[in-house]
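re: that chain from earlier
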Amino acid sequence: MSKISAGITGIHGWVPEYRLTNDELSTMVETTDEWIMQRIGIKERRILKEGATSDMGAEAVKGLLEKTGTKPEEVEVVICATITSDYPFPATANLISDKVGMKNAWSFDISAACSGFLFGLQTAASFIRAGTYKKVVMVGADMMSSITDYTDRTTCPLFGDGAAAVLVEAVDDGFGIIDAILEVDGSGVNHLKMKSGGSLTRPSHETVDGKEHFVYQEGQAVFKVAVSKMADVSVEIMKKNNLNPEDLAWLVPHQANMRIIEAVARRMNIPKEKVMINIEKYGNTTAATIPLCLWEWESQLKKGDNIVLAAFGGGFTWGSIYLKWAYDGNKNND
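^ sequence. v structure.
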């Protein structure tokens, strides 16, 4: 039996209309546009005023299915990477499936913070390679505004809301997802987490008053580890697959901080013109950053392009995926 190659055959993104600019943010907390741009590289972020994560995910999936000519009932598996699920249960993927009419699909969520899209994409590819399923929809969606403290000047400039979805199917041999290196380190919980709301520290008046249901981050510690881990794993996957910087069409890094992105690109010897960057207008949308980049650049992607995806997230989680793009993007773009 010949080996089945799995790859992305379509992508679509969705972001809310409302733009929270740095100037508006400076009326809420003590900050300035100059300070945010110098340290983070974000000009504005999209905020969902009404609805939840599943609503954004459903919009992204609807666009994806229309774009690829896929009927909702043809989808067999739906995976949603998110840390801002509508409810602790049921899974947000279940709600997306219901809203889009994917009645024949079973679905589940993946919680790997900013690395969630990579973890989910590798999972989706495994289903296709095994021959178990033919059509898997992978969604990265997060409504970070729902867990952001807008009185905390160190974290509130970072995050935005958004969603993107990809269709994963069998592709021509030699294309698609070639390799993945995915890692975790649970001791990172001390530096980046939500302190309360789980089984360890249950919700109470004290946890709400203490603002323990928002993102908690020790910025310096996270920055240092993020640069190291994202760069190391990206260099490793290139060496493992005999890729030189000139062989790479695109680096698609998680959009957390412009300085992290620049540091990773330098370590990989990748020029800025080969790095997908949209952090300035969307901020950190967690599991949605990488697929939102691919969506925006889709028309520029060519079949056979060598692409490295890289991410780092809370937990800690991090990883890199090497893929050979499976279709000419301008033929599948709106």
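The first strand starts at residue 5 and ends at 14.
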